[in-house]
């Protein structure tokens, strides 16, 4: 059976579209969280699976006066921002995002029940401060 030139082009376009769609649907990085509690707070970092690329980090520290001081930092130049989501008690869940790559956002909360880190389409589970 002989395939005409037009049919070959159609098949090539269809295959290119399938592979292109698969490439776009693939995440830029496979990521995993790293949670480190310490005496006066905790750190939640997001690394690639090989732990060679730090994507973002949230540091939660007990304030000596009262409440919690937080920093949300973006460490990966990929066009996505890092967002911390904080369950601030009566205030509900508050989102704090970074302005962009290699930048941090700082904030104070009187109460944090739990928090999580989000990047691109990925979000960690909830962690204690």
Indicate the overall shape.
globular
* Low-confidence residue ranges: 18-26
Helical run tally? 1
- Span of the ends, CA to CA: 68 Å
SSE pattern, N- to C-terminal: HEEEEEEEEE
Give me the Rg, rounded.
Answer: 21 Å
Strand order of the largest sheet: 1-2-3-4-7
Please describe the biggest sheet, giving its number of strands, its sense, and whether it closes into a barrel: 5 strands, antiparallel
Look at the helices and sheets and give the structural class: alpha+beta
Strand percentage lies at: 35-45%
Portion of residues in helices? 10-25%
Q: What is the residue-averaged pLDDT? A: 86
How many distinct beta strands? 9
What does this structure look like?
This protein is of the alpha+beta class. It is 16% helix and 44% strand. It has a five-stranded antiparallel sheet, with no helix packed on it. The longest helix has 21 residues, at 5-25.
List keywords for this structure.
five-stranded antiparallel sheet, single chain, four-stranded antiparallel sheet, 129 residues, alpha+beta
């Amino acid at each position: 059976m002989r395939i005409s030139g037009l049919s070959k082009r159609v098949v090539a376009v269809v295959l290119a579209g399938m592979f292109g769609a698969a490439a776009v649907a693939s995440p830029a990085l496979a990521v995993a969280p790293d949670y480190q509690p310490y005496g006066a707070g905790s750190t939640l970092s997001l690394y690639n699976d090989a732990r060679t690329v730090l994507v973002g980090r949230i540091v939660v520290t007990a304030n000596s006066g009262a409440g919690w001081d937080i920093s949300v930092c973006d460490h990966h130049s990929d066009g996505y921002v890092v967002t911390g989501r904080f369950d601030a008690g009566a205030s509900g869940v508050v989102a704090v995002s970074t302005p962009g790559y290699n930048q941090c956002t700082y904030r104070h909360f009187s109460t944090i029940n739990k928090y999580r880190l989000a990047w691109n389409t990925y979000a960690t589970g909830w962690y204690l401060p």
